[in-house]
């Protein structure tokens, strides 16, 4: 039985959860969506498949998993990260991706980790969808 107000139990649970997050939320566990190819942290070129609860070694029944980015260059819907590459002629973009895992039964037990990424510019404008008038 977990008593939410027990500071020693909360600290122990937070430490254990942080160790799992630190071990599993690594560059090697972030893949390009639909592939087994590790995403290039220095030059993202496609959407991402973020680590699921099984990779994080936690049970999704008991923990909430949330991914966020420091900029609008990557947006998340569940475990998929949509990457928006900068247009040709603009600077490459950089962002930070943060994973936050929270115990559903005790929000005091939370862990997070942040990784740095860069998005390559599009090579040519024709790779963008066109619109007709």
Can you characterise this structure?
The protein is built from two helices and seven strands; from the N terminus they run H-E-E-H-E-E-E-E-E. With 133 residues, the chain is α+β, with helices and mostly antiparallel strands. The longest helix has 18 residues. It is elongated.
Q: Which structural traits does this protein have?
A:
133 residues, alpha+beta, 4-stranded antiparallel sheet, 3-stranded antiparallel sheet, 7 strands
Name the strands of the widest sheet in spatial order: 1-2-5-4
Q: What is the residue-averaged pLDDT?
A: 89
Run of helices and strands: HEEHEEEEE
β-strand number: 7
What helical percentage do the residues reach?
10-25%
Shape label: elongated
What about the largest sheet? 4 strands, antiparallel
Q: How would you sum up this structure in a few lines?
A:
The chain is of the alpha+beta class and 133 residues long.
Layout of strands and helices, then pairs:
Layout: H1 7-24, E1 31-32, E2 48-49, H2 53-56, E3 63-69, E4 74-77, E5 80-83, E6 93-103, E7 110-119
């Amino acid at each position: 039985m977990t008593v939410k107000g027990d500071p020693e139990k909360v600290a122990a649970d937070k430490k254990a959860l942080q160790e799992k997050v630190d071990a599993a939320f690594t560059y090697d566990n972030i893949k390009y969506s639909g592939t087994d190819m590790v995403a290039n942290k220095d030059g993202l070129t496609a959407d991402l498949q973020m680590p699921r609860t099984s990779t994080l070694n936690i049970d999704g029944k008991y923990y909430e998993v949330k991914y966020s980015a420091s900029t609008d260059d990557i947006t998340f819907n569940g475990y998929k990260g949509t990457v928006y590459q900068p247009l040709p002629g603009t600077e490459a973009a950089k962002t930070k991706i943060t994973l936050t895992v929270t115990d559903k039964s005790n929000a005091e037990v939370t862990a997070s980790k942040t990784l740095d990424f860069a998005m390559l510019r599009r090579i040519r404008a024709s790779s963008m969808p066109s619109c007709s008038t």
